[in-house]
Structures
1.
Amino acid sequence: MIQYIDNMIQDNSSINQFIRNKKVLLVGLGILGGGLATALWLLKHQTKLTITDLKSKKDLEPSLKKLKKYSSKIKFVLSKNNLSDVRKNDLIILNQAVPIINNPLVKLAQELNKPIFKDLGIFFQLIDSPLIGITGTRGKTTTTIWTYHLLKAKYSKIAIGGNNPDFPIFDFLDQFKKQDLVVLEIPCFQLELSPTKAPHLAIITNLYQDHLNRYKTMKRYARIKANIFLHQKPDDYLILNYDNAWTKYFLSLKPVSQVYFTSQKKLPKKLNGIFQAGFKVYFQENGKKFFIFDAASFVKTWGKHNLENLLRAILAAELLGLNVKQIKKQIVTLPQVKMRQEIVFQNNHLTIINDSAGTSPEAAIMALNRWVKNKNLILITGGTDKALDFNQLAKEIKKKLAAPNLILLNGSATKKLIEELEKLHYSKTYNVFENLGECLNFGFFLAQNKEKAIIAFSPAAASFEKFKNEFDRGEKFNHLVKQLATR
């Protein structure tokens, strides 16, 4: 277990008391923005900063250029990591992209009892407001934003932050004032260093294959996700997905908090939580159930998969004191979440969907299932592999999509998907393109002779061979849509 110093901050509202004049080693600058944001925050708060990265000066040029005016205040150790830097510094901070498994710097920091953090660990050290922490493979961003939206009906002093470029964690920290609640999206990379604090209310949306290029096994991946609740107390809450196969594993770790469940079928009477029967949604506690609302119109507008996200948000709101009237009022004004099956263009002839945040095969299956009722669906998919299995996605594509309507963005994951499709004798030829512009151009070409066509971009894979991250990929897709649709 990584050692933390719980009493480092006497006053949690004072960032400076925690960080100023400390000698800090930042491991992993990177070029995607996360390490840069951390470095700028550390410099702002007057740390004595050393940055180390296995990448070369040339590889890191985009980030180094933005740090140029601070170069006299930073010691750079590039193209290598020195164990001596761990010994020389007071705090060790890891870029979230830096894995802890088999990492010699992390191992030495443990042996020396050096305080070592990722962004989440810093956050927990500096924030003493009650936290709602949301993790999982699919649906965590939508659940986070919708939970925040529902809770605004009761709590005027509520904040949202976490793994989202619209809510950068270090901007959040600097602007933070004491809140009634903080809703936080927590990805697995941030949970690798198990924090000694836990959210008052933790949610694990589900667990599917993801990041196996990093964790190798699903059990290791699940164990890291479980870190969100392992330090909870008996008066805290944990929300689990009753329908997900990995929930039994989480329960086997014997959480001490009060466990509630969400389900798309009727829950056993002995369990507390929220479930649906048909389109009717019920809250159940101590063997008694209470009707909340009829979700038929919601499913028609938002899709069946989003009802799962809403159930989690409603349950969190119930547990934190909202009544049914408040919840139903907020449901009417739920916001669309960016790049999660987001409609980015629509006219009488064509609808275009951006699901760039769908980085796993399960996400693409959800998108396919939602939009395939339109027989003129055109699917753009493909990207970078994370050691995932594309067999089930291939089966769903063969069952539901005509081969000419499949457009593939080339990449390591795309090659695996084609291999699976070929095993199923799906097609003799494939529409494979090297960039998004070519994919979208061909999508427009296919759509022009179809009535009320849908182009859905759901990559089912990571983005790193061609883009900074899934958000960069999604923004580029939107820009191309705007250009081509105007033309």
2.
Amino acid sequence: MDAVLQDLRYAWRSLRRQPAFALLAIGTLALGIGANAAIFSAVNAVLLRPLDYHRPDRIVALTTQWQKTGRCGTVSAPDFHDWNDATSSFAAMAYYTYNLDFETSVNVDGVADYGAVVLVTPEFFDVFGVDALVGRRIARTASPGDAPVAVISHELWLRRFGGASGVIGHTVTFGQRAVTVIGVMPPGFGFPGSTDIWYFPSATGETASRSAHNYRVVARLKDGVAVPQAQAELSALAARLSAAYPASNEGKGAAVVPLREQLVGDTRPTLYLLFGAVGLVLLIACANVANLLLARATGRTSELAVRAALGAGRARIVMQLMTESLLLAVVSAVAGLALAEWGVSAFVALAPAGLPLAAEIGVDGRVLAFTLAASAGASLLFGVLPAIHASRVDLNGSLRQGGRGAAAGGGGARFRGVLVVAEVALAVALVVGAALLVRSFVALGRVELGYASDRVLVVKTTVPARDEASARRATMTYAALIPTLGAIPGVTSVAGIRGLPATATHSNGGYWLEGGPGPEVAGVQAPQAVFTVVTPNYFRTMTIPVSRGRDFSDRDQDDAPLVAIVNEALARQAFPGIDPIGRQIMCGLDTPRFMTIVGVVGNVREYDPSTAPLPELYMPYRQHPSFGTALTLVARTGGEPMTLANAFRDAIRTADPDVPVRATTMTETLSASVATPRFRTLLVGTFAALALALAIFGVYGVMAYAVSRRTAEIGVRMAMGAASGDILRLVMGQGLRLALSGIAIGCALAYALAQLLRGMLFAVAPADPVVFVAVPLALILTAAAATAIPALRASRVDPMQALRAD
């Protein structure tokens, strides 16, 4: 212990004597450690930390699984009840309704706003093992005629009720449905997503069709039951249901998935990619610091020789040098944690809205432990080899030549060269990956969307409606409101849509043609299409061309013949070589009645720019009132769209104060649809730039050090007749050989790593020739520039001064 304390004191004094070296090494390591800690905090919150529920490892999601495709999805009510009644693996099972756009109009004391409302069965809270903070949970009632009840989130309780205990018994209205508040959930509980209200409509019926997959299911496993055991039981039951109900359940299985797996979804590859990228940055930082330490140790050869002459063994010298490395790592870890706090804030601010558990990302005990482990590992990576190399002291040569001869030995130079090659290789791999993502994102931004997103105001609205009659009244509200909004100065045209492009709010399902097999024919898979409900003038507002037929008009009301418009993709799929105008089509949106096709419009990328246009069926909102009560209004404007947001808000609330309003632009909506690839590209690009800077600094540092150690040799060469150009070629040749070796190895490594990015790329191949030519060429030019500085310095050496100094 005395030796350790002595080494620590000596290491501290040694670093204080060389503040420039200490600050450079600490800064380099802090960047690598801080970036790793920040990304690990996200990995920890999303992938590692237990969910904040009672025994979360026992909670699973149950989904329908289509055996032909392997796709998993929602569950029908009859299937849910069979699963609940005929299985013994689950302690509790519940269903709930949820989609990504599950906000609706919530009215509290006459003030309307958007709120996230979820229908749940009473066992829902048993699954999560959560009890009410105030009041009680929903309990299954034996009286179907009882009024519907609800529990609210702690956040809504504070926001709209000021945390008053009198909230119990209060009435809240949404969608013209009044519910009685019976409880408040504890802070932090909001599943699914950030729910404001959970309600159970005691008197309502369920969708009785086994083909209507309207519900999501969660369950709690019984003690002692593992996921494979529950999966086997549920799969056997699904097979029996498939045999008993072939018309609806043929080919349908069931899947048991841990809840975390369902929540994480497609986020896991992105987090692993970012974690791998910052890991490479840390390795490059370690190689850089190892080079600094090796250069520093070489300059301390005389000091180490004296210590050896006084009796210090090789192990004692290694211990001293490793103590200095560990001290550097610990100080760097402290600085890295400060950077990590900032990095976490930046990460959460830049993260796409759908990132699960984003609110829980932060620096906790596990992140602290990871940071300490990373710093300890880094100290070994950058410290052990320089320490071992420096401990090989030649006493006679070092003491006789003051360390200069030993320092110039080839072993240290070769090791520094290997480190530079490794730095450049890792940087090339990271830069190639970043370049592929950038190329992919650029291609994503250039794709033809099928509509114009510029100068379009987007206003989300919901007219409260509970039944068919109130839904029809809601469509009449929109019919009167849209002309009023169109008269606002600066507005070119206004329309409404249920299922705005670049959002996840679309309906889809099968469609059938007159004269072909209908929905009653078992075993025939109906072709699939996107179902979109719009108002007249929508295609003009969004500049979607009507290639044949006509647009919808105000005459297309509920008492008029049913009509529809199809896009080019559906026309080609359903009517190859035939004019679809006048043909009959039926879909599973709301009513099994045939509609006459009156128009064909251009294709639109409805979900996001990376998803190719799908067959799409448009229907007029007045003929489908249940889907015309929550329309997103789109208005093409003559100037900046958001300048008209307040005018729209005032006009809508004047028409109906119960209608909540949320305004944005189509440009922002489209930007949100590509938030994940943009986030991925931005962070990986940032890490690649940092890695490149560190690698080029490593090339420069090694060549600058080599020139300083070879000043006498260069003087001799010039005294023997070598020209400045010869010296320039000599030094640059040495630096470029190192860089080219690293680039060659890095390209091979990049090719292997690029295959892992295949699923994240759009319109770009993992072996994209442009990237694999441009990146090495750019690295060669950058390395040449870094090498040119010490090479020019070497070519200007005065031979007389160099020889006299030696």
